[in-house]
Protein 1
Amino acid sequence: MKQNSLWKDAFFRLAKDKLALFSLVIVLIYFLVALLSSMGLLASTWSQEVGASNLPPSLEHLFGTDIFGRSVLQKVIRGTQVAMSVGVAASIIAIPIGVLLGAFAGYFGGWIDDFVTWLYTTFSSVPNIMLLISITLILGKGIFAVYIALGATSWVTLCRLIRGEVMKHKEREYVQAAGAIGGGHMRKLFRHILPNVSHIIIINTSMQFQIAIKSEVILSYLGLGVQGEPSWGTMIDDAKLELVRGVWWQLAGATVAMFFILLAFNILSDALRDALDPKLKGK
Amino acid sequence: MKSLVLVLTGVLLLSVGCSKDRSFDERELHLISPEKIAGFDPIQISDMYSGNEAGKVYEGLFEFHPYKRPYELIPNLAAALPVVSADGLVYTFTLKKGVKFHDSPAFPDGKGKEFKSDDVIYSIKRLGDPKLQAKGWWLFDDKIAGLNEWRDKNSALEASNYAEEIEGLKKIDDYTVAIKLKRPYPQFLYALAMPQLFIVAKEAVDHFGKEFLNHPVGTGPFVLPVFEQTNRIVYTKNPTFREKFFPSEGEEGDDKLGLLADAGKKIPLVDKIIVDIIVESQPKWLGFQKAKADLLEIPKDNFDSAVVGGKELAPDLKAKGIRLFANAMLDVTFFAFNHDDPTFKANKKLRQAMSLAWDRAEANKLFYNSSAIEAQSVIPPGLGGYRKEFKNPYVKFDLEQAKKLLAEAGYPKGKGLPTITVQTRNETVARQIIEHFAKCQERIGIKVKVGMNTWPELINKVTKRQHQLYTMAWGADYPDAENFLGLLYCPNSSPGSNGSNYCNPDFDALFKTATVLQDSPERSSMYEKMNEMVAIENPWIFGFHRTKFYLSHAWLKNFKFMEFNHTQFQYLNVDLEVKKELSKKF
């Protein structure tokens, strides 16, 4: 019987799960929309008036218009760009920090481990939203601050998981074998151990991504997030005043957009874990 | 297990349903403050919300009559109106006797001391103390003989020397003070009614030190031992408050409205004031609907459900006994350019272009239900200096001219102009106003961004000149247009009230001449000239003079709209019978 590699195997298992595949497609669509929007090919005219103030959804304006007569659909698309960019940026910041700190702590132990453990326990002891608010207050408001704030808070889980896995792996035979043929610490860590724990990064990122999206919405809702750009959070903030007048479409647009991406990410990260985690193999 | 959970939930729901946080034994006044309070130190107050809170604990020498209109100044801590010397420079005040400060650990034995002339002199000196950088200093800057000299001398010292006597502040006896002015200052008595001139006790300032702003110790009708930055402030009646009685006179018709029913009664009339700080509109509206607040300024999005046809109260509210008050305000909203910023300072055309690009009619409709008046300049209607016929050529919506001026300003189609950040309050409507403004500016190619701040943060940014453009409203402190024109007077620049740091020598010269005159047609025409001179310079983008709409519940008695309302609360009353009866409907 031919043995597939871990990745190939995982892919086949993922492909068997129709729901997960569907979620993957949704996530890819969101990415595509965000990409097109950031290139100015979609929703570049979001700030322009397309009709009267607060028009309900119709064939002409699919999601209706907001208080200034701007298209809610375009705002949702633009909000998608903001949300996805926050997810990506937060991951780009969090992954290197989490992986490196976790790997070093797990592999070397001793004072490095003490230090890293102290660092992440300190970080995680502060309620996340408080930390986010204080970071945005220090850095000034705006999307850049949101990137940094979310990046700086979301590495903790990844770091902890990687540290644990590396600790487990460093005693394994294949690592000892690598040492026996003369591999140094760095080689053992980066060539041998990390590839074997990399599935954790993928699973964790897909989970962190949706947390980042949610946090961005919360921050923007509180007025601490993006400024002067549509965000799902500010749309919901607008809606809380408009709802009494029966203007529900901004809330609906933002929530529906958020709902699908969060659901898709949730299903996908579940499926990824099933597919990639060796412990769940054969289940 | 599941059934237990169900039972528990049921009990919980039931208890919530039965509990009423309304009490009918104590007269409680429930009010809403729409902003966080920046502390209780009178000299550092620069906004009406903090002034309103300080006015519950502190008092000044004078106050405005709660019912008479036009506004009339009446003695509060002073025993009578002052005796003024023939040259109009020396004011002799007699003070009320037997007025006690609140009981506080700051005093020996914790018993409040008696209010005397030393406290008046101390409070005025404190406003001028260079170490404290009082935000209210503009009121007395260059006004009182010897005070500026004292200020300058002390700025070099380690600590200000309060023992030194000042020529203009003379204690005649414990209950008489003579204040000498440098030059006539017709607004002087108005200033003495303002929160910045509330009387504080030296003992309390010394005792609490830096924490003084959180430990108000005044002579006022209510006490608040400690102020904490929470969302609820609870004041209780001051047990040692002097004999002060409800006025028996008001504007014509006030007695028919029942406003004077409590005439002759000892005030304050309520036992407790509970102020909830609620920034957002919807919780305010819902709180009022549930009778958790007695008085409410109608939020813009609820306007249509509260007021029918722009005038009449909605029937469902009327059925609950709710009353509607509509009042034109003595105020102006504006976007102020920071003239420290070279982009705006030297570029009048840029400022004018931005003014022309703003669609005020649309903003009025979106944010004020078309009830506001477009401001042509700084002075609101109702004050001498406002001329109805005057139209500012840059207060209109004209994109073509805006584009032309922008090109002449050196930024054709906005090219080369950096993104401009407008600082505002962190609140949904405040943000929407800027978003609308940004949308308008984008049409001529100017990029505008929102900067959101808590109220104290915003004031701080303006005071420290860390802004490009900020938006705010100015409400009259007293019925004199000087109060508005002073917002553009150069010596009032930040940390004073001129947050735009605008300087215009011609304007300043006129201001100096006009503001020492007593109210007269001559002065009004000078005010008009200044108002119109500054209008076309556009140091601000002029916004609106607003109309305020209030709703009050039937049990709230004696409420009459008041522009200078920081002392109004002591006159309000709650009819517990009516409240008990009506509360079944909520």
Protein 2
Amino acid sequence: MKYLFHIGCIFSVAALTGCIHELPVPPSSGKPRAVVYSELVAGKKAEMRVGKSKPVGPDINNFFAPVTNATAQLLSADSQLLEQLHYVKDTASNMAFYRGNTRIESNKSYIIQVKVPDTRDVTAKTTIPLPIKVDLLDTVRTTLNGRPVLRFHFNVQSPPANSRQFVVMEALKQLVQLDTIFIYRNVRYRVRDKRALYEQVKNEPGIKTYKDTVYLNSYLRIPVYTQDENADNNQVGGLNENYNSILFTQRANKPLNTRLYINATALTAGSIDADVPIGRVLVFVKSVTPEYYAFLLTYEKVRRNPGLNSLIQAIQIRSNAFGGLGVIGGCSQVAYYLYYDEL
Amino acid sequence: MLVLAPATALYAQSKEDPILQASYAPPFREGSILFFIQDIQRQTGIPVSYSSSFLHLNKKVQLTGSERSTGQVLNTILQGTGIQAAAINGKIFLLRESSQTQYYTISGFIKEENSKEVIIGASVYDPVTRRGAISNPYGFFSVQVPDSCTSLVFSHVGYEMLIQRLPLPDDRQLEIHMQPRNPLQTVVVTGDQDSVTLQAGYIKMPVGYVANFPALLGEKDVLKSLQLYPGTGSSLESSSNLLVRGGGADQNLYLLDGVPLYHTGHLFGLFSVFNGDAVKDVSLYKDAFPARYGGRLSSVVDIRTRDGNMKAWHGKVTLSPVSASTELEGPLAKDKSAMFLSFRRSLIDGLYGKRFNQQYGKYALYDVNFKLNQIIDHKNRVYITFYKGKDNMFIPKDNSPFPLLDDYKFAWTNITAALKWTRVISPKVFTNTTATYSRFYNFFSQSSDFKLSAIAPVSLNGKGVSRVRDIALHNETEFTISNIQKLSFGGGYTYHNFAPTAYSTNVDRGDAIQRPAPKYYMSEFMLYGEDELRLFDNRLTLRPGAHFGMLAQRGSLYASLQPRFMVRWDLPNQQYVQASFAQMTQFMHQLTTPVINLPTDLWVPSTENIKPEKAYSYSLSYQKQWESDWRFNINLYYKLLKDIVTTNTVLNIFDNSDLWEKKVINGNGFNYGSELLLEKNTGRLTGIFSYTLAWAWREFGWINGGKMFPYKEDRRHNISMALKYRLKPGWSLSASWKFSSGAPFTLPTQIFPDYDWGRNINGELDERYSPFANNQINYLPYITRLNNFRLRPVHHLDLGTTVYLGATRSIHHILTAGVYNVYSRSNPFIVSYDQFVTMSYDEIYPLQLYQYSLFRTLPYISYTLKF
């Protein structure tokens, strides 16, 4: 038996000689493509984020430089230039942010055209959906599979005859920065920016201070859940799983009566369960274009698993950005703003 | 010379001859032909002349009672034999009619000399005409031989050839006993086999192959041995997951003593559940499927276990550092009843101590095979078979290699049982009726101290159960009409009960809707018929057939008539060409994402929304044999798959039955290729070489833009070489080399900023309910085509040796040793683009391909004691 044990040790060592190798990635002849993310929301100004992809090849990493020299244009359905969007400098933004002044109208078609040096031009056409009609019947704090959740009972009115409505529900927490503003010699300063000056003059007479709240370009995604068997999330995973968004394909003349659950852990800052930052909660119920919906559905699958290992079949993300990557989606939405945190 | 002359002319002249009118009173109304001939001679004194070579003298005959003369009696007893009595020169001659040679039927069982175990697939033939038959899975044969036939030859792989002289002394059913060859002597696939069943798309693997060639950890594995043949392969290195001609592992029908098995993997498919020691016969059908088989698209693997020794008690114990196995067989009543019992168990959990188990987890598997067979009389026999195999696995959360959030426990069990009754209804008709039970049960649990929230219980406990249960009754009948025509027909009923995963936890469900776990109760009916015809002096063989299957359950009913056809033309010098067509329908689908054989892969039925899968298989083959030494064949095949099912997402293995119909889509598949086999079965050096050139494509409406893409199991080239050299009668060396082209893999063409990351949306999914997403990556893959990249090829050279030590008359010692993957090739087990270990969006790191390998050079040794 002792002999066997020694042989066993040899076996164990031999079995563990299996190891990890880095394999060379074949060189790519592909060129970077422009990446455009634009959600054109009815009633809001046109916005988009522009970046560049990286061809997969040897020696690449996951750093993406923002593309600040793009030409981003909003055109009408008949290709008339409506506006050239301007780059908005925001060092906190991961992708270059472009904004215009044109307010997007529902039931209207737009063309987005983006030119990024050394890449092919990106074009996409989208028609903004009709306004979505949502009734919030009630909200309840409850639990779902051991989690505290906030339940929204929605009734989404049916789309017009012979059409379908692609409904997306999601929740975000927009982070807030609390700051103090002081006025010294009739000049307005933020304490955050002029801390030394503030310390120096704060006790001087005539110094006025007051609190300010700044909504940051930074969000926290709140996991959402559904128990609705008609949700297209059932194509993605189980009903007890969490999602970025809950997706429905609503047929004509069929109102959608459903309950959306959002994880309540993140609602209030200082929760005992997690280190949740201060902010406000945004809950969106959107009607989106079919292409945008297809993108979101595949995005949901990829977020669960990029599938880039040999055991799992990869998922392809749908896109409508011709010549580039990303998505240009039209959207009509209803937003609910919830303020749980004490500011 | 006169007795060989046609009788017509002579009979016309002599039928009124007085010696045929001579009075004769038979003493009995029943007796053999020989008895009445001898009695006529004795009573009347008239000499009767005949040739025993064409007259079946022992045939029992019955008189009507109205016979009063020699002629009348002879007319009655010779009725149907094609022989007539003629009076010539005061003598009676028994002469053949003008028709051609007469045939009579010989039937019986072929058994092993010592153990009386029935032999499957033995050839029985007339050495002159080379016409004959093959013993069926119960050792039964029925052959018609000409009256001029003076002997029958019996041959089989692994047994000494036997010649039986004719005519037989009496009319009894024949029982042939064949002498096994020396266990160390290489098996022989005799070139004399003449059966239509021995065709290129059908592999009857010599059981010796299971033990002859080197194996991972020395574990004899039936399915891995089958992978030596062309057209077969596995999804991963050294996996027992059998893939046939571009089909998935779920498209093989595995029958263990006629009982279907749904899960055939131990240790996630590293070993199969078929214990090599318990197996007697392994058959693999890749095309030209006999009509009796149905229910799967790609292949049928029909495995028969040993019956047990009818003469004496024998046993065997095998010990290796990783497992132990034992078997016992013997007569319960000599020559009447025997049993066979085998047991094997892994030893890793016991030998390497608690610390090892805590560090790496605990794993154990075992198999029990039991068979009892009882001869009731020479026409009836009953078999009872039982199999149970179980895997137990425990992975602690704080294990060294891969720390986890939870403790995991997996346990899966296969149980099969069968009661089989075989009956020889007549020398030409054999029937077997089988009642079977098959159950696959999978249990898993998770347990952790991870709190979901402040309100959740301190520890989370979840468990899931899935089950497949079949109860069936089948009948198969063979009717050998003549040597040129054989009918097979039968039918069956199977009651299926599928319960895909039901998962539950101790957490408060709150608002969550309690859905009853899906359960399916189905009835499957099957009928088949097949006619095997040999024409043009046996050169043309036709085998038309049809299989009818029907699945009925609440809400859906599917019926399928599946035509089968095979045609073969025999050429001179042991050559033939063959073409076949088969339609197969699969009512059951396996939902699986990974390529490893997980017990959590679910079996679900066709439903109102999910149609049965269909395969239309065409093949063309050529085979040439050189006596009994060499065999060469080449095959071309094309297979069209319709309505095959795949998942369009990544299934959560813990909760994947939830509304599963919404996660699957139907599509098509196209598999085609060619296969080449060269086999040498005699001499000191024996071996097999096989090469497969193959393509496998899939096409689904919502995947890859609706365009065809390579199937995950597509391998362009597969090469297997296995050699065995007998140094001495008690010592042999063996080597095998396997090569398989790289598996397809989807490598993104580009990566681009993640949608949420691009919009400054941070945060992670709630990983407790999505076990995959536990990291943050800031990019998305842009995939132009699925499976656009090939991983590195898999190949390894294995060496082994077997030595018989200190053999005495009753005890043998066998030492087997070897080395797996001699040149320490790092074969891809999992390949990943990016390691997915970052927990933050902000981390910048190089993106690489990572290959995880499982086995490098690995020695094995085992010792066997036989008595």
